[in-house]
Design brief:
mainly beta, Immunoglobulin-like, four-stranded mixed beta sheet, four-stranded antiparallel beta sheet
Protein backbone atom coordinates (compact mmCIF):
# COMPACT_ATOMS: atom_id res chain seq x y z
CA UNK A 1 0.00 0.00 0.00
CA UNK A 2 2.84 2.40 0.88
CA UNK A 3 4.62 1.42 -2.34
CA UNK A 4 1.50 2.29 -4.36
CA UNK A 5 1.24 5.70 -2.69
CA UNK A 6 4.95 6.33 -3.36
CA UNK A 7 4.58 5.32 -7.01
CA UNK A 8 1.55 7.59 -7.38
CA UNK A 9 3.44 10.57 -5.93
CA UNK A 10 6.45 9.90 -8.18
CA UNK A 11 4.14 9.70 -11.20
CA UNK A 12 2.52 13.00 -10.21
CA UNK A 13 5.93 14.70 -9.96
CA UNK A 14 7.02 13.30 -13.31
CA UNK A 15 3.82 14.50 -14.99
CA UNK A 16 4.46 18.03 -13.66
CA UNK A 17 7.86 18.30 -15.36
CA UNK A 18 7.59 20.64 -18.29
CA UNK A 19 9.70 21.36 -21.32
CA UNK A 20 9.18 24.36 -23.58
CA UNK A 21 7.01 23.22 -26.43
CA UNK A 22 6.57 24.86 -29.75
CA UNK A 23 3.11 25.11 -31.25
CA UNK A 24 2.01 21.65 -32.32
CA UNK A 25 -0.62 20.54 -34.82
CA UNK A 26 -1.67 16.96 -35.27
CA UNK A 27 -1.09 15.73 -38.79
CA UNK A 28 -1.76 12.60 -40.74
CA UNK A 29 1.85 11.71 -41.50
CA UNK A 30 3.94 9.44 -39.33
CA UNK A 31 6.97 11.75 -39.27
CA UNK A 32 7.39 14.65 -36.87
CA UNK A 33 8.13 17.81 -38.85
CA UNK A 34 9.44 21.26 -37.94
CA UNK A 35 8.13 24.37 -39.67
CA UNK A 36 10.39 27.35 -38.89
CA UNK A 37 8.77 30.78 -39.19
CA UNK A 38 10.56 34.13 -39.19
CA UNK A 39 14.16 32.97 -39.64
CA UNK A 40 16.34 34.73 -42.21
CA UNK A 41 17.20 33.02 -45.50
CA UNK A 42 20.26 30.81 -45.17
CA UNK A 43 19.36 29.68 -41.65
CA UNK A 44 20.28 26.11 -40.74
CA UNK A 45 18.71 23.54 -38.41
CA UNK A 46 20.63 21.58 -35.79
CA UNK A 47 19.06 18.75 -33.79
CA UNK A 48 20.93 17.48 -30.72
CA UNK A 49 24.04 19.34 -31.90
CA UNK A 50 24.03 17.70 -35.36
CA UNK A 51 23.59 19.84 -38.46
CA UNK A 52 20.43 18.70 -40.28
CA UNK A 53 20.48 21.24 -43.10
CA UNK A 54 18.85 24.39 -44.45
CA UNK A 55 15.32 25.33 -43.44
CA UNK A 56 14.57 26.92 -46.84
CA UNK A 57 14.57 25.39 -50.30
CA UNK A 58 16.39 26.91 -53.30
CA UNK A 59 13.42 29.19 -54.02
CA UNK A 60 13.41 30.58 -50.46
CA UNK A 61 10.34 28.64 -49.32
CA UNK A 62 10.32 27.11 -45.82
CA UNK A 63 10.92 23.36 -45.75
CA UNK A 64 9.06 21.00 -43.41
CA UNK A 65 12.05 19.27 -41.81
CA UNK A 66 11.49 15.74 -40.45
CA UNK A 67 12.91 15.00 -37.00
CA UNK A 68 12.77 11.89 -34.82
CA UNK A 69 10.08 11.68 -32.13
CA UNK A 70 11.11 12.24 -28.52
CA UNK A 71 12.94 14.91 -26.58
CA UNK A 72 15.12 16.87 -29.00
CA UNK A 73 17.45 19.86 -28.62
CA UNK A 74 16.62 22.16 -31.55
CA UNK A 75 18.79 25.05 -32.71
CA UNK A 76 18.24 27.46 -35.58
CA UNK A 77 21.51 29.14 -36.59
CA UNK A 78 22.39 31.83 -39.10
CA UNK A 79 26.13 32.04 -39.65
CA UNK A 80 27.64 32.00 -36.16
CA UNK A 81 24.48 33.39 -34.50
CA UNK A 82 22.10 31.11 -32.59
CA UNK A 83 18.55 32.35 -33.27
CA UNK A 84 16.63 29.63 -31.43
CA UNK A 85 17.79 27.06 -28.89
CA UNK A 86 15.21 24.96 -27.01
CA UNK A 87 14.52 21.43 -25.92
CA UNK A 88 11.21 20.30 -27.38
CA UNK A 89 9.17 17.13 -27.26
CA UNK A 90 8.49 15.87 -30.78
CA UNK A 91 5.40 13.69 -31.02
CA UNK A 92 5.11 11.28 -33.94
CA UNK A 93 2.63 12.52 -36.54
CA UNK A 94 2.73 16.16 -35.42
CA UNK A 95 4.02 19.26 -37.14
CA UNK A 96 5.76 21.70 -34.80
CA UNK A 97 5.89 25.39 -35.70
CA UNK A 98 8.90 27.28 -34.35
CA UNK A 99 8.70 31.06 -34.47
CA UNK A 100 12.09 32.80 -34.58
CA UNK A 101 11.99 36.39 -33.34
CA UNK A 102 14.82 38.87 -33.90
Amino acid sequence: MVALALLASIGACASQMSYPQAQSTQGSTAATTLNVIGAPLGSMLKVNGNLVGPIFDRKGRPVLVPIPPGTQRVEIVSGDRVLYNQTIIAVQGNSIAIRVTP
